[in-house]
DNA-binding MarR family transcriptional regulator (Labedaea rhizosphaerae), 153 residues
Amino acid sequence: MIFRRYLDAVGLHGLAAAEAAGLHASEWYALSLLDLEGSLTSGELSVRTGLTTGATTRLIDRLERAGYVRRGADPADRRKVVVEPVPDAVSGVEAIVGPARRHIAEVIARYTPEQQEVLFDYFAHAAPAYREASEEIRRSAGKGRGARRGGAG
């Protein structure tokens, strides 16, 4: 129950932050990925977000119109599009996430350095576990959609 409340609070914060930035949740997530990675090809962004290539193109269009990202050619393969965050625009996101960072820093400061190591070890291992769980959900949902479509006919 406590863990579910924590996850719900994190999810709610993500939704509120996206809304404050004038973005949809998927756009906020993509912007976060780009901020962490520096740049991704449109294909990599599609895979990482779980969106179709068409939906990813529309997402990039919206982020570009909003001034958060820019497109460029991949220097290694000019046929590919590289999407990179616009530093000045992304730095404006700091104002949105600042309160959460401040509050979480206060929470983490309550723990000893040894306990903080355990917390950060958890974060380091939990993030990939959640990504894998997300992929499992997408794979099973994709199978379910096809089965429902076929059975509805």
Remarks:
- The two ends are 41 Å apart (CA to CA).
- The chain is about 75% helix and 10% strand.
